[in-house]
Amino acid sequence: MPNILIDIGKINRTYGGAYQYSIALLRILSASSDNYRFFVYSEKPEEDIRQIVNNSSVMSFTDAPKYSKSRKAKLYTKLFNKINRLLGKSSRDLKKDKYDLLIKKYNIDIVHPPAQSLVKKRGVKSITTLHDVQELHFPEFFTSQQRANRAVRYKNAIDGADAVVVSYNHVKNDIVKYFDKPAENVHVILLDMQNLWCEKLTLKNSKSIDEFVIPENYLLYPASTWEHKNHKAVIKSIASFKEQGLQLVCTGYITEYYEKTLEPIIVEHGLQHHVHFLGIVSDDNLLLLYHKCLAVIVPTLYEAGSFPLMESMLMEIPVICSNVTSLPGTLGDGRFIFDPNSAEDIFEKIALICYDESYREENIRVIKRNALKLKNNRALEKIKVVYDKLSS
User: Fold this and answer.
1) Which of 42, 178, 243, 328 has the fewest Cβ atoms within 10 angstroms?
2) pTM of this prediction?
3) Could you report the per-residue pLDDT of 336-359, keeping only the tens digit for each?
4) How far is CA 262 from CA 19, 175, 237, in A?
5) What is the spatial distance between Cα 89 and Cα 84, in angstroms, rounded to a whole number?
6) Who contacts 23 (Cβ-Cβ below 8 Å, separation ≥6)?
7) Is the Cβ–Cβ distance between 252 and 223 less than 8 Å?
């Protein structure tokens, strides 16, 4: 029976999609048979994570490891690695750390992080999860230092991993093309969208939306304010709907980009009372915001996969989205997508989804049908194939 370390580390709600992915992965693995034993390492687990692990018969939390290395050992490692570099050898002395303690204590066979990282240790198989390589497509969204760090970190993770897990074929194609990873070692596994946070809550338990001073008619965009999320395109479009009273509500982690770029755009267009950034809200209130909105909009310029899009579909909330990466295939109908770089296209789709009743009804019919595909992707079965391959 393989022992598998799920390395969540520092991942929390501020990590956006990576956090949602971690929760979905844990839920799927928690339903696994007794053929596997999972040990979850999380520095400060959120309540969602605690509930999943504590209610599972095949999961348990690890202790918080404390590892300190003597000065003599550090000098030895540094000297050993320097000599190998001078000799042109690729093998290095693997620096000992907290993972050595975890692997030894829990007799770990496989380390599986749900994020873009790698734990490489002798005698242990390693998996890395690559959510996207956005910097290859939109380098302008990153500083030169960020691009360099991602290039080195992702290259090391992909090269060192025994298996790479991605959610979509377009990410796999990028990894094979740009990182020269054998295709057979890159596994496309889209997680099942089942037992999500929104399915465990009811509207009657949600707080009053009045506490946010939110208007009656609004579009919802739940996404952290990273540049590629393209909030500015929707903000500019909302300016054209002032007379209709349409407003925009955004939830999610607020980054420096908001103060630097988005807030000035709001002021420039006089939208201080029409655009609302609420930051991270409770699940109860997010559920209410979903159900009270006219529609959800996902205008992103790049996305491996969109949780707001999938959540909207599963809750049967009208939704429109960008025509990028996996989003059109997820939504499944070209009538409800738009060019995120076209103000005219965005304006047209907003007008239709908010004010054309037949368009809204058809949108709901389509998402009901395609939501069924999201619920069962045989994710557990596919993950087991990877585990069994690495264990053999």
Assistant:
1) 243
2) 0.75
3) 999 999 999 999 999 999 999 999
4) 24, 32, 13
5) 5
6) 48, 49, 52, 197
7) yes
